[in-house]
Write the structure tokens for this entry.
Amino acid sequence: MCLAPKPNQAARVRHDAGFALVFVLVGLAMLAIVLSTVTQRLYLPQVTFAKLRSQIQSELAWEAAHLRALPLIAGSLNATRSQNSDARVPLNGAPFVLGKEHSDLALSVQDVGGLVDLNAASEGLVRELFLKLAPSSGITAVNELLALRAEQPIRAPETLLAALGFEGQELAKAMRLTTVRSGSATLNPATVSTELVSLFGYQTPEAFERAEPDFFRTSRIRILRVERWEE
């Protein structure tokens, strides 16, 4: 003899089954969240470590290249002082590669005497530079610069150039072509920046000097700017 479940019992069975299903689904969802979090925590340190290792290797390569470049720079200085044209590395900001072991790392060495000194450069040189960099606002920037440096020496060129209206690529180029450390009103023809020569519209430093002799004067190389060359 088979007894059919009472209506209340059948409803209770369905209710219990539904609750169990919900419980299982919630458990699976929580498990998925936990697994996802654990996976991320395991993966992210690996990514971070890989980036850190790459950065450290890059910095070590740069330091090694920098140290190796120092005697070459010294040789170039001696060659320049003795009027020997066979300088071992360029001192005008042109990029060069040290050797096979540093084939992916190029350096540039720039004598600051080949840059425009914002504190000391002649008004004519500063005016021409600013007009080349920013044709629309160059005159205003020159006048503001001359007024500012008459009051006190410029010590933070990037802040000053930004305040004068240079931004983005203009600011980056202005930073590469200027200094506050040469103390010279003119440019050193032996080490004038190749980028500066190009900006003024000349193919060679010699052509630049012939066209603008007032912008040049041979001076002693005292301070160098060594940088990692970036395209």
